[in-house]
Amino acid sequence: MNDPHRAAPHRALEGLGGREREDPPPDPEAMEARAATAVTEAAVSLILREGSEPALLLIKRAERETDPWSGHMALPGGRREVVDSSLVETAMRETREETGVDLARTGRPVGRLPVVAPTNRRLPRIAIHPFMFTVPVGTPARVASDEVDAVHWVPLSELRDPACESTVAIALSDGDRDFPCLRVRGEVVWGLTYRILTTYFERLPAAV
Length: 208
What we know:
alpha+beta, 25% helix
């Protein structure tokens, strides 16, 4: 007999975060404070493909000199642009442009996770808003942008496997430092993406 949670992960995901599709009305004082600190806003998509083997969509960013996260494994997403009426629209637009997955047509929004930001002062001042979606079984993804080198549907079972937990040595100004990471598909998932995924897995029911 089919497991109803695995057949419809969105049922288990609902309630993990706010389900609002639009951002709340802007607060003038908050906007002024944000402008004063010059923080760029961005959004990423956690896309869970339904089915007997639920899988999460990850991308590998292309090598680009202007990209501080060049070559990294990441979630689809990017910076908010003037055409975006809300941050969830940023996540959806960037996902479509990078992977060809049209969340406006096939995606089901199921919540959002807390905002994350780089802790390294040498990185851009940016606030990243993670939004969660589910898509139907069989939804394809492809490399749809020169900013992306590869796309991967990675089964949740693989991402949650303790054998994937590891560390990676990153060269910093004061020497090498070990950071926690996941090793999947011959690649390393660390940093902001690792932090977002860790929060996601903590809130995701074990039945999914």
